[in-house]
Amino acid sequence: MSRVYNFSAGPAVLPEEVLRTAAAEMLEYGSSGMSVMEMSHRSKDFTDIIEEAERDLRELMAIPSDYKVLFLQGGGNTQFAMVPMNLMKNRVADYIVTGQWAKKAAKEAELYGRVNVVASSADKTFSYIPDLSDLAISEDADYVYICQNNTIYGTTIKTLPNTKGKTLVSDISSMFLSEPMEVSRYGVLWGGVQKNVGPAGVTIVIIREDLITEEVLPYTPTMLRYKTHADNASLYNTPPCYNIYICGLVFKWLKAMGGLSVMKQRNEEKARLLYDFLDQSKLFHGTVVPKDRSLMNVPFVTGDAGLDKRFIAEASAAGFRNLKGHRSVGGMRASLYNAMPYEGVRSLVEFMDRFEKQN
Ligand SMILES: *Cc1c(COP(=O)(O)O)cnc(C)c1O
User: Fold this and answer.
1) Looking at the predicted structure, is the pLDDT value of residue 1 above 90?
2) Distance (Å, rounded) from C-alpha 212 to C-alpha 146?
3) What tens digit of pLDDT does each residue of 42-98 get?
4) Residue of 69, 37, 48, 49 whose CA lies nearest to 177
5) Average pLDDT over residues 139-154
6) pLDDT tier at 149 (50, 70, 90 boundaries)?
7) What percent of the chain is predicted at pLDDT more than 70?
8) 121 lines ligand 1 (CB under 6 A)
9) pLDDT given at position 2
10) What is the CA(120)–ligand 1 centre distance, in A?
11) Using a 6 Å cutoff on CB, does residue 199 contact ligand 1?
């Protein structure tokens, strides 16, 4: 076996300890005589798995008791529709567009109501976060929407917008569990788990209870109502059982690591290593305004597309995989999620330094 350093933006690296536990429990979970994949979602074993996963997540994120945790399917793109279908009572919402995912979310919401883009960084290819302290929030906005960590462009909203009393909805897909967050400042927090938490197929929605109502837009399918899943503890229909089980193992791993404050510290150390290198390099350059840099996704370029291509190929041959930037920006991107060890980033920086000296 030879595992590489996987810098993929998602699906992405998972903790090796988690994969080993899953391997050990593959043929028989506990004394059940079967794999988690083969179990009824109504069985005692699986009920324990999903309940424990929720308890551990609540503990890790200190989720207040008036918030529900939902384990859903359909990925991030389904939330782009579920959010407006469930929350657009006045059919008005304000969107802050800081990248492709926020833009896609806004476009989807336009199917259901009036969308006001109250801030955008499209003018400089999403390389910064605009000032969000005094926006023209719509009088009748049902919510204000952000994508908090922009996976493609490598920026993070570090100071939450002043929503002037409106409900804040945040896509936290690529920063989920990377640092502590104050859940009570949001109405809805949601994330696809395939970036920083688990295998593709689960979307976790953390939603304040008063936002879960019968009053949804007409023709909202039963499966796309938050209430359906909240009323049935995420077991209205068959959930992605195995993937939820893996998420649960990741939550246990995070707890054993010391929780989210420790993860934040580790993530800061890893990111600093790479950003410090980029800031002194004569060949490689970061593409983002320094104050808005993401701890999770680090895009960089040489300024020469041919050289970028050669770097990606040589890095891949040396065991540093998935460094190619998103097709919309080009260049390189290193994703430094929780499960990427410090050693992986240190080795990458050494490799980049050697490449720079040779070119
Ligand atoms: C990947 C990603 C999405 C899209 O998720 P899918 O599960 O592929 O639909 C949405 N938002 C962010 C921030 C992402 O990184």
Assistant:
1) no
2) 20
3) 999 999 999 999 999 999 999 999 999 999 999 999 999 999 999 999 999 999 999
4) 69
5) 98
6) very high
7) 100
8) no
9) 87
10) 19
11) no
CA–CA distance, 171 with 173 (Å, rounded to integer): 6
Contact 324 CB / ligand 1 (< 6 Å): no
- Select 17-257's CATH number: 3.40.640.10, 3.90.550.10, 3.40.50.1000, 2.40.30.170: 3.40.640.10
Q: How far apart are CA 50 and CA 247, in angstroms?
A: 9
CA-CA-CA-CA torsion for 78, 79, 85, 91, nearest 10 degrees? -130
Q: What pTM was estimated for this model as a whole?
A: 0.98
Nearest atom within ligand 1 for CA of residue 152: 15
End-to-end CA distance of the chain: 32
* Position in ligand 1 atom list of the atom nearest CA 10: 1
Tell me the catalytic residues: 101, 171, 195
- CA dihedral 126→132→135→139, nearest 10 degrees, is 100
Query: Which pLDDT does position 183 carry in this prediction?
Result: 98
User: Which residue CA neighbors atom 13 of ligand 1 most closely?
Assistant: 173
CATH topology of domain 259-358: Aspartate Aminotransferase, domain 1 (3.90.1150)
Under 8 Å between Cβ of 72 and 205: yes
Whole-number Å distance between alpha carbons of 227 and 125 = 37
Q: Is the minimum distance from the CB of 191 to ligand 1 under 6 angstroms?
A: no
Q: Judge contact between 73 and 203, C-beta under 8 A.
A: yes
